[in-house]
Specification:
The protein is α/β, with parallel strands linked by helices. The protein contains 8 helices and 10 strands. The two termini are 17 Å apart.
Length: 222
């Protein structure tokens, strides 16, 4: 079985993720990268590719029920793969840079080798404004500028995580701890730099990202 597949579904709302995707694509020749185009054929081809790989790295929208496919102004694949479908696949490793992927992985913990996921990752200020309509204190002091910096931090974490995974062939548990170290390092760098404005709010988002991380599965340390 092939080693690592990195997936990015084309989506205007996650276009910031194309930067680490393309950077790593140029750098890591032994890894397969697949950008899902906004059509059924491309999404279906991606599903067939997933079956052939041991480790799946996904960069895009998700929820506790599914990973989302590609979209544009005239096409929307709401579900690329559901947790039920993930459970039916042969045991794999899943690294999911997507919102609420911790809850999705919990549903699959008895069938996957290992999975690393996250809680809420606020990368769209419009979503935050929508949440504030129901809770005026939600994401207090977070503005559009901080969200943009948070997205830069996510890209930095993704790039370093995938590079380290390949270079050192880390198992799931070691990769999980390495990612937590990366997030802590990023937080410290932000707080120490006097040029950064609103650095406490930026660091708080990273702290919450780290706190909500999860590793699960049947073989986390192999």
């Amino acid at each position: 079985m092939k080693k690592i597949l990195v997936i990015y579904p084309h989506d205007p709302t996650t276009s910031f993720l194309i930067e680490p995707f393309q950077y790593l694509q140029r750098k890591l020749k032994s890894v397969t990268f697949y950008e899902i185009q906004p059509n059924d054929d491309s999404n279906n081809e991606c599903i067939e590719l997933i079956k052939k790989f041991e480790t799946i790295i996904f960069m895009g929208h998700g929820s506790f029920q599914k990973l989302s496919g590609s979209k544009n102004e005239s096409y929307n694949r709401d579900c690329l793969i559901s947790y039920n479908e993930i459970q039916k696949l042969d045991s794999k490793n899943w690294i999911l840079f997507s919102c609420n992927s911790t809850d999705l992985l919990k549903k699959c913990s008895n069938t996957i080798q290992y999975g690393i996921g996250f809680g809420d990752l606020p990368t769209d200020f419009n979503d935050i404004q929508g949440i504030r309509e129901f809770d005026a204190n939600a994401y207090k002091n977070i503005n559009d500028e901080i969200i943009e910096r948070f997205k830069e931090s996510i890209n930095w974490i993704i790039s370093n995580t995938i590079s380290e995974l390949l270079e050192k062939n880390l198992n799931g548990l070691d990769l999980y701890h390495y990612m937590r170290i990366l997030i802590s390092r990023r937080m410290l760098d932000i707080l120490k730099d006097p040029r950064n404005t609103n650095q406490k709010e930026h660091a708080k988002l990273l702290f919450e990202m780290k706190q909500e991380m999860l590793i699960t599965g049947i073989k986390q340390n192999i």
